[in-house]
Amino acid sequence: MTVPPPATEAAPPAPQRCGLIAIVGRPNVGKSTLLNALVGQKVSITSDKAQTTRHRITGVRTVDEAQFVFVDTPGFQTKHNAALNRNLNRTVHGVLADVDLVLFVVEAGRFGLDDAKVLALLPEDKPVVLVANKLDAVHRRAELAPWLKGMAERRNFAEFVPLSAKKEADVTRLFKILKPYLPEQGWFYEEDALTDRSEKFLASEIIREKLFRLTGDELPYTSTVVIDKWEDEGELRRISASIIVERDAHKGMIIGQGGERLKRIGSESRQELEHLMDGRVFLELWVKVRSGWADSEEHLRSYGYE
Question: Taking every annotated instance into account, which residue ranges of this chain make up the domain KH type-2 (predicted)?
Answer without folding.
Answer: 207-291
